[in-house]
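ok new one. same drill as before - structure tokens go in, u give me an amino acid for every spot. 495 of them this time. try not to just spam alanines like last time pls lmao
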């Protein structure tokens, strides 16, 4: 019991540290589009492309960062590198914002001037910093919780994370206000201070609060060998003949060699892991619509005029982290009560529930879209969007916590960060595909096309996501027992 309490202390500590990094990441991203449009004077098409390219890069690079973290860094060092990189990014972004000149002519290309160059260098450091910090934070939570408490650990982590996101968006909204673009530099200054405080608190408290499953302090992680040392060790243990043979193997032969080196248990778990990656992509395609096509929908079809105040479209983005923050503690209590009754919601069950809730969300929009399509309603009440965001938050809590736990159960400790990098990289694929689908959002009174197939009105558009998530949920329900067998878990109920 004492060990469980220590694990919970460590979970709350590192989760609190994570609020500073996620506060900055989502705070920067909340003004990303506006910064490109009004500070760098990019056109809307160029802004859209840059946004997509950055997201793709930021999530794909996590695979490489995951490999580096697993191979050469311990968790504490990795998190420190992440925070330092993010601090550097905010200083660079502050400098870029300080060069803002409202009299600059509008540009439709990425002109190689000082302001643009500095800004993209800042974004590079931000992507690197978030990769190191997010991977190491989740790795720590995974390490300080065992199989039985892992879901609870991530159930604590996720709402606290979203508190940081909420605060980050509020800070940017308050500081910038309405079109006060000259104040952007103050945002990056504030974020720099917040990150420095977060780094100091982590370095001072990590030895006290962070222990692994064996009760050892996190700073007792074995220092990783350098690349040179690893290479020398490899050369000492492998003959020249073997090296020559491996060198001359093609890609498929190398893959086959790697597979042959794995145990049956490892092979089965990797198979299940990559099956879940495909499921995650389908889920995230639908989930990301809340920040793409739903924005178009709110802007055109939702009654936002309260007579005394017109609600800006971007303000609806506060609903998701707010609901996550409210629902998170409730989820923990409900899970505890269910476990006392010997009812355990493992990550497969949670994923199925998340998919079904997502089906409910888009069924709601499909029905609303039907009445809009037949001209029986012009504008809908904003209450329906609040209801939609509420159930999206429920689905996100179920799915995200399940995803974090899934990586922890299927990945070996040695390759946890690499596996988690693949897990996060699904966002890159999902964002690309969801961006393509949302670009087919039907304008008023017209139809659009997806792969040359006509989409007639809002009802048919939203029905795409209903079918996608329902099909994925049914596949999981049908093959659940087979997947559990291949996971080789000590407690099959944990799935």
């Amino acid at each position: 019991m004492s060990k469980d309490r220590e694990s919970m202390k460590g979970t709350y500590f590192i989760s609190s540290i994570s609020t500073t990094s996620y506060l900055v990441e989502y705070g920067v991203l909340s003004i990303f589009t506006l910064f490109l449009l009004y500070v760098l004077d990019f056109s809307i098409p160029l802004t859209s492309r840059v946004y997509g390219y950055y997201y793709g890069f930021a999530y794909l690079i996590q695979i490489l960062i995951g490999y580096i973290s697993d191979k050469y860094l311990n968790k504490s060092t990795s998190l420190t590198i992440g925070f330092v990189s993010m601090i550097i990014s905010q200083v660079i972004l502050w400098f870029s914002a300080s060069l803002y000149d409202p009299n600059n002519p509008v540009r439709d290309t990425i002109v190689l001037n000082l302001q643009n160059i500095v800004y993209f260098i800042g974004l590079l450091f931000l992507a690197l910093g978030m990769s190191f910090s997010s991977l190491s934070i989740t790795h720590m939570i995974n390490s300080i919780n065992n199989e039985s408490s892992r879901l609870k650990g991530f159930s604590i982590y996720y709402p606290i994370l979203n508190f940081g996101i909420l605060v980050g968006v509020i800070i940017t909204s308050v500081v910038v206000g309405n079109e006060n673009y000259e104040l952007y530099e103050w945002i990056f200054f504030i974020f720099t201070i917040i990150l420095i405080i977060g780094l100091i608190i982590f370095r001072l408290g990590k030895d006290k609060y962070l222990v692994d499953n064996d009760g050892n302090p996190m700073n007792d992680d074995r220092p990783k060998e350098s690349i040179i040392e690893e290479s020398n060790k490899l050369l000492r243990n492998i003959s020249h003949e073997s090296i020559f043979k491996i060198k001359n193997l093609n890609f498929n032969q190398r893959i086959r060699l790697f597979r042959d080196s794995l145990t049956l248990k490892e092979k089965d778990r990797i198979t299940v892991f990559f099956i879940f990656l495909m499921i995650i992509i389908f889920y995230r395609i639908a989930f990301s619509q809340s920040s793409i096509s739903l924005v178009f929908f709110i802007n055109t079809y939702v009654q936002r005029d309260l007579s005394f105040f017109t609600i800006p479209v971007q303000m609806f983005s506060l609903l998701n982290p707010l609901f996550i923050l409210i629902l998170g503690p409730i989820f923990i209590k409900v899970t505890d009560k269910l476990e006392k009754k010997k009812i355990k919601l493992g990550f497969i069950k949670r994923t199925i529930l998340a998919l079904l809730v997502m089906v409910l969300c888009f069924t709601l929009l499909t029905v609303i879209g039907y009445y809009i399509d037949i001209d029986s309603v012009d504008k809908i009440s904003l209450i329906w969007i609040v209801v939609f965001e509420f159930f999206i938050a429920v689905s996100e809590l179920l799915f995200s916590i399940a995803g974090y736990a899934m990586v922890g159960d299927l990945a070996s400790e040695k390759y946890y960060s690499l596996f988690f990098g693949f897990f996060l990289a699904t966002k890159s694929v999902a964002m690309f595909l969801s961006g393509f689908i949302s670009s087919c959002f039907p304008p008023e009174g017209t139809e659009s096309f997806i792969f040359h197939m006509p989409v007639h009105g809002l009802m048919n558009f939203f029905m795409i996501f209903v079918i996608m998530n329902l099909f994925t949920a049914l596949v999981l329900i049908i093959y659940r027992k087979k997947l559990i067998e291949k996971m080789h878990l000590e407690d099959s109920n944990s799935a």
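Strands lie at 302-303, 380-381, 447-450, 453-456. and btw Residues 220-228, 238-244 have pLDDT under 50 and may be disordered.
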